[in-house]
Amino acid sequence: MLYDTKGFTVLPSPSLNQAWRSPHDRRAAFLSQSGEIDVDGTVLFRGIQRQLVPDEKGVYLIHDLRGVLYVGRSTDLRRRFDEHRLRPSNPYLIVALNHPFGEMRFSWIRTSGPDETDQLETWLIAWLQPACNRLTPSS
Questions:
Q1: Cα 1 to the chain's mean position, in Å?
Q2: Would you list the domain boundaries of the chain?
Q3: Closest CA to 59 of 75, 73, 76, 70
Q4: What is the C-alpha separation between 77 and 59, in angstroms, rounded?
Q5: What percent of the chain has pLDDT over 70?
Q6: Residue pLDDT, tens place only, 87-116
Q7: CATH homologous superfamily for 39-128?
Q8: Do the beta carbons of residue 55 and residue 30 sit within 8 Å?
Q9: Above pLDDT 90, what percent of the chain?
């Protein structure tokens, strides 16, 4: 499957989307397939970098050396950058942000409308399986 839109290209293997049945299948598919995410921008996850983040709609990724930790969407990427940095509410993301492996980064892909934003966010979460895309820890 090729997901190609103005400003970004995501190139997963077709079999990757069919392999989300079990953890073993998921791991085998992920490790055997190549993919590429072409983002519009990336900054270090620090306050001084906020002016480099556009105040536009899009999908964003928070990542460090462990990989992509969180995928989200926003109508204002700069505002969402500040919210995650100053007032994070996701308990998993709070732990990850407080204990980074290397430099924490914030990357984004601009989108043209809500349908494109929803589709891309859903697809990236399914493909990348970010560890912090959970609202609350299970008890």
A1: 19
A2: 39-128
A3: 73
A4: 8
A5: 71
A6: 988 899 999 999 999 999 999 999 999 999
A7: GIY-YIG endonuclease (3.40.1440.10)
A8: no
A9: 62
